[in-house]
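The pair is quoted verbatim underneath.

:::
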Amino acid sequence: MSIICPTVLASNSHDLRDQIERVAKFAKRIQIDLTDGIFTTNKTVGLKNIWIPEEIETDIHLMYKEPETVLGMLIELNPSMVIIHVESSTDIPLFASKLRENGIKTGIALLPETRVEDVAYLLPHVQHILLFAGNFGSFGGHARLEVLEKVAEIRKLDKRIEIGWDGGANIDNCLQIAKAGVQVINVGGAIQNSENPQDAYATMEVLITSINNA
């Protein structure tokens, strides 16, 4: 089953709140994207200045070079899941075990050039794998749909793990992404920058309904 998951990417706490409130009335799940200005070229609002809506399942996609330096703050925020990049400098099994002890799931994100076979050893430690295929640290951009080939590779290794997509998802390509087997389609600019975010979300939800009902 595939779902549309609006994403939030803000440079300050005011914009963060505005974006969350923009989607809170209709989203079942959201993803907050955070960058450190080191792993990515831009820097978003810091962990000390974010809040998580209690009524919505919330994931944090942490584009940090050293995620372990903010582990305590992540645990205190208590999101549903924290997604970190395999390209970071983190001991991912250890990081995941610390989150698991506190009832928080762990996801790993892969940049387009990272091969699935090179991270296969991490799959038993995590619950989610995010295929990143857009503009790193920003909304919008062209979705690199060739990255969808990794879905089948992941499924050969692990039929259990949840697969997400991040990067350039919109009304024109969300059905193709869902058909490939992606379960969580994170959508940023196509919702946040829409004149009617709820209509944009609803349209994409309708488009993927045929996959969910198949």
Observations:
- The first helix runs from residue 13 to 24.
- The chain has a mean pLDDT of 93.
- The CA atoms of residues 37 and 43 lie 4 Å apart.
